[in-house]
Specification:
Number of strands: 10
Number of helices: 12
Oligomer: single chain
Structural class: alpha/beta
Strand content: 5-15%
Largest sheet: 8 strands, mixed
Distance between the termini: 10 Å
Radius of gyration: 25 Å
Length: 356
């Protein structure tokens, strides 16, 4: 199905349910793809289109190289800020999230140990700050909170994600963290059982070193420390299990892949699609960006022969996209003569995406 915009740009849609028609029914929308293909513009247009349709919408950037503020030509930051009626936005700061995350962990650990161990907690947290995956874990914490608490305040939450590889690791974290927490709980159960056995044999509490107090277990229900440790681990598991459940629910989550008609983005999109499907994450469709089409008026701005060569190559790649991703609904957005800037520029893209 093909429509034509008021600017003369054609919009191609699959005969299947079009991506933009399906997205409004999903509370959570993730927009991903290779770096530089226009994810931020598409995410912003989807969010703005949802807001214009009457949905209270939150647009979240999780890409460390934030560009939402540049796109809308205003300061956004890591607190929710109103962009236009019905649309709020925030840019998650990974470094600040790591600080908040580690502070929460330190406060929890301090409640489990004696003050003499506080310096050791500080040392361990400083090592954790620079460990692989610390930023992803902290970011997942914030995203999990937004996915759960944000849905009580917003009808739609659109995530402008980091490039594909980072996003796929991020989306796999809930499953990994749930397994990790289950392992800790099993270890804790074994420790409890061993502690009870030793206590029955010795008939007294082991006095041990400073760290032994974490493992000391009373047979009576008065062991509040053990209960707090268990509850902290269970709450962690609940948080990530809830996030994972939302990610896998096609009635809740839609993942939209953005690409341009070039070889490397097509290859990366194929790999991303394979991984997303393997994890069971619902993919709603594709947005093929920067398509050169005849009759756009672009010819006057450059060399006709060069443009025809680019169009011919794009035609081959577009046919390849149709072959390889034909089971997914997809849109084509034109190669604009100028950069998309400001609220009016994003509104133009939103109009194309949501046009019937």
């Amino acid at each position: 199905m093909t429509g034509t915009s008021e600017w003369g740009w054609s919009i191609r849609r699959s005969t299947m349910s079009a991506a933009a028609e399906g997205l409004p029914s999903r509370p959570l929308v993730f927009v991903g793809g290779k770096g530089g293909v226009g994810k931020t513009t598409v995410a912003a247009a989807l969010a703005l289109g949802a807001a214009r349709s009457g949905l209270r919408t939150l647009l979240v950037s999780t890409d460390p190289a934030h560009s939402l503020g540049d796109l809308f030509d205003r300061e956004i930051g890591d607190q929710e800020r109103e962009i236009t009626p019905g649309l709020h936005a925030l840019e998650v700061d990974p470094e600040r999230e790591v600080e908040r995350y580690l502070e929460r962990v330190k406060n929890t650990m301090r409640s489990f140990v004696r003050p003499a161990l506080y310096p050791e907690i500080e040392r361990q947290m400083e090592l954790t700050r620079h460990s692989p995956g610390a930023a992803e874990a902290a970011l997942m914490d914030r995203m999990a909170a937004l996915m759960h608490e944000g849905r009580a305040r917003y009808d739609r939450i659109v995530f402008d994600t980091a490039p594909t590889g980072h996003t796929l690791r991020l989306l796999a974290l809930p499953e990994m963290m749930s397994a990790w927490t289950d392992g800790l709980l099993r270890s804790r159960d074994r420790s409890d059982a061993l502690g009870e056995g030793v206590d029955r044999l010795s008939r007294r509490k082991s006095e041990g070193d400073e760290l032994s107090m974490i493992d000391q277990v009373d047979e009576t229900p008065s062991d509040e420390r053990s209960a707090r440790i268990r509850e902290a681990l269970l709450e962690r598991r609940r948080t990530f299990t809830r996030a994972r459940r939302a990610l896998l629910d096609p009635e809740v989550t839609a993942f939209l892949l953005v690409l341009v008609p070039e070889k490397l983005p097509i290859l990366e999109t194929g790999k991303a699609l394979e991984v997303l499907r393997r994890h069971g994450i619902p993919v709603a469709g594709l947005v093929v960006n920067r398509v050169l089409e005849k009759g756009t008026g672009v010819e006057s701005s450059g060399d006709i022969e060069f443009l025809e060569g680019r169009r011919a190559q794009q035609a081959e790649y577009l046919a390849r996209i149709d072959r390889e991703f034909g089971d997914l609904p997809h849109f084509r957005l034109p190669f604009f003569a100028r950069d998309v800037e400001g609220l009016s520029g994003v509104e133009g893209v939103a109009e194309l995406l949501f046009r019937e």
